[in-house]
Specification:
Helix 2 packs across helix 7, helix 5 packs across helix 7 and helix 10 crosses helix 11. A hairpin with a 6-residue loop joins strand 1 and strand 2. The protein folds into two domains: about 190 residues, Orthogonal Bundle (Cytochrome Bc1 Complex, Chain D, domain 2), CATH 1.10.760; about 180 residues, Cytochrome Bc1 Complex, Chain D, domain 2 (Orthogonal Bundle). The chain is built from eleven helices and four strands; from the N terminus they run αααββααααααββαα. About 50% of the residues are buried. The longest helix is centred in the middle third of the chain and has 16 residues. About 25% of the residues lie in helices and about 5% in strands. The protein starts with 10 loop residues before the first helix and ends in an 8-residue tail after the last helix. The chain is mainly α. It has a two-stranded antiparallel ribbon. The structure holds heme C (2 copies). One heme C (HEC) binds next to helix 10. The site of one heme C (HEC) has 27 residues, from helix 10.
Length: about 425
């Protein structure tokens, strides 16, 4: 099977008519969508962030610190609990190294707790490891095929291209770090132990936008440093012929790749035939509509008409991604360190990895096990037709035997356990 990164038509999403025409309408500003997303500040005392198509003014090149110094500062900022309001929540509170740089920050509903009691993000926390391999958002047409696939971008809906522009969203989001303004963050950085080093590295500035950009650049340096892409899992050692997989793990790997069984590697890409870990990122950076069940524990979901539509609600300054076929599609996460996570899927509906794999195995053969109401109940009726029902393991029908039996599910779960890097101390 081809392990290339080119787009393959994918089930329902692969048969889209192209309603997406004007592709390169560049726009200088980032238009926030009408709805509040996780990480999206409700009120921002700053100019809207710019997209990488029209980058924010770069830091003065004369004062550009070296990469190691930026990354070291970024790490201090990442773990700094004084940067929230009230104090106590750092980036690492949600992106916890013990959980593969993801986590719930003490919440049990599937999405993370913010800095204030009772305030939760609206999506599950993704891991921030291996982000240096994420490419900007783009659409891809297979030559001569009437299909379009979306790839790349940060967040579950790929809405930001520039990693340095991401941090201001959690810093200012009232449900996450809850700072009132860019100026209040700047004041905290000033008073931090590393304040003088920060000024020395990035230059003193009274401009909040400029300082926030520097904070973003420092964090981006840290997040793209080798520390966050260690490739030190058992799987990495296995493809480099340093350890063997157990019989169960090896079976899991086979099922993961078998297009008649798990079919997982269609989207969670890997290449176990060459000793190059970078070729096994366990994502193709694409988007798919998996039709995960509604998470009844989410307070945003108390309103029965509230739905998180993912990709089609992404603000699209450059590439139009607002066609209905994209509603319900979320970015395929990397499965590296997935066994360390506390909750799974964009809405955090699952809290056990075995449940996730069982869901894949029997979503279409035993839907009543997964959906309290109609199938694909976390989407409005008109978007349910875009859920992927064509590819393994989804391409069976109610009453058929599930794609994977219990022993096979256990094997895939065991294999996924080989993707964990040792937790840093
Ligand atoms: C309260 C929990 C919380 C805190 C604190 C938090 N994040 Fe996040 N982070 C999230 C959630 C939830 C998402 C996904 C949001 C979405 O997709 O809409 C996310 C997404 C991200 C992403 C995108 C990852 C990807 O795979 O595309 C990055 C990068 C990131 N956060 C960095 C940070 C940094 C840096 C900080 C500190 C300045 C931080 N986060 C603080 C919860 C948090
Ligand atoms: C057609 C593409 C596709 C296939 C095939 C696929 N996945 Fe996924 N996977 C996704 C997408 C997209 C998501 C995120 C869905 C969401 O949150 O709505 C996901 C999420 C996951 C997650 C949750 C990760 C997290 O960070 O929360 C796990 C675990 C997972 N997949 C495992 C598997 C396994 C095991 C298989 C094979 C049995 C598989 N996937 C097959 C696209 C795919």
């Amino acid at each position: 099977m081809s392990q290339s990164m080119t787009a393959a038509p994918r089930g329902a999403l692969g048969t889209w008519a192209i309603s997406v025409t004007a592709v390169c309408v560049a726009s200088a500003t980032f238009a926030y969508g009408a709805r509040t997303r996780a990480h999206e500040p409700a009120s921002v005392a700053l100019a809207p962030p710019t997209m990488s198509s029209a980058p924010a003014p770069k830091l003065s090149s004369v004062s550009r610190p070296n990469e190691a110094a930026r990354s070291a500062l970024g790490k201090l900022i990442f773990f700094d609990k004084s940067l929230s309001e009230p104090e106590g929540t750092s980036c690492a509170s949600c992106h916890d190294p013990a959980h593969g740089f993801a986590g719930n920050h003490g919440s049990t509903v599937g999405v993370p707790l913010g800095s204030r009691a009772g305030h939760f993000g609206i999506r599950n926390t993704p891991s921030v490891m291996y982000l240096k391999f994420t490419r900007p958002f783009h659409l891809h047409w297979e030559e001569d095929a009437p299909v379009v696939d979306a790839y790349g971008g940060f967040f579950w809906d790929g809405r930001v291209d520039d990693l340095a522009e991401v941090p201001k969203q959690p810093l200012l989001n009232p449900n996450e770090m809850n700072n009132a303004s860019g100026a209040s963050i700047v004041a905290k950085i000033e008073h931090a132990e590393y304040g003088a080093d920060f000024r020395q590295a990035f230059g003193a500035s009274t401009d909040a936008e400029h300082t926030l950009r520097s904070v973003g650049e420092a964090l981006a340096s840290y997040l793209t440093s080798p520390e966050l892409a260690p490739f030190s899992s058992k799987y990495d050692q296995f493809i480099q012929h340093r350890v063997a997989l157990s019989t169960q793990e090896a079976l899991g790997l086979d099922l993961f790749k078998d297009s008649a069984k798990g079919g997982c590697s269609e989207c969670h890409k890997l290449n176990d035939t060459i000793p190059v870990p970078e070729r096994s990122l366990f994502t193709d950076h694409g988007f798919d509509s998996v039709g995960v069940p509604r998470n009844a524990k989410l307070s945003v979901d108390h309103a029965p008409d509230h739905f998180d539509l993912g990709l089609c609600q992404r603000p699209n300054p450059k590439f139009h991604s607002d066609s209905p076929e994209f509603c319900g599609a979320f970015r395929t996460p990397s499965l590296r360190n997935v066994a360390l996570r506390q909750s799974f899927m964009h809405n955090g509906v699952f809290s056990s990895l075995r449940d996730v794999v069982s869901f894949y195995a029997s979503r279409s053969t035993n839907p009543r096990r997964w959906y309290r109401g109609p199938e694909f109940d976390d989407l409005p009726t008109q978007y349910r037709e875009y859920v992927n029902v064509d590819k393994a393991p989804y391409n069976r029908h109610a009453g058929d035997a599930p794609a994977l039996d219990d022993r096979e599910i256990d094997a895939i779960v065991a294999f996924l356990g080989t993707l964990s890097d040792p937790v840093p101390r």
